[in-house]
Amino acid sequence: MILPTKHLKLSNTLIGVGAILLRHLDADRTVTSLWAGTHSLPEIKSFERFTLALDFLFIIGTVDFKDGLLRRVEK
User: Fold this and answer.
1) Do residues 25 and 70 lie in contact, with contact meaning Cβ atoms separated by under 8 Å?
2) Minimal CB count within 10 Å: which of 9, 34, 53, 56?
3) Which residue stretches of the chain have pLDDT < 50?
4) What is the reported pTM?
């Protein structure tokens, strides 16, 4: 579910959904506005997948949540 395999496409994995979310996180945004901008994409499919992908991005240090805003972490 996190990484693609022979039977699981990239668009159906958390890393694939996370990449889509990062593409839409070009500026600091609230979770609500990011959801509003991405919920209609076929890869996102549900709020659960959206939050799991955000959790994954936070765990690996790619996004940060401060003062109610999500932001990309530049390394």
Assistant:
1) yes
2) 9
3) none
4) 0.90
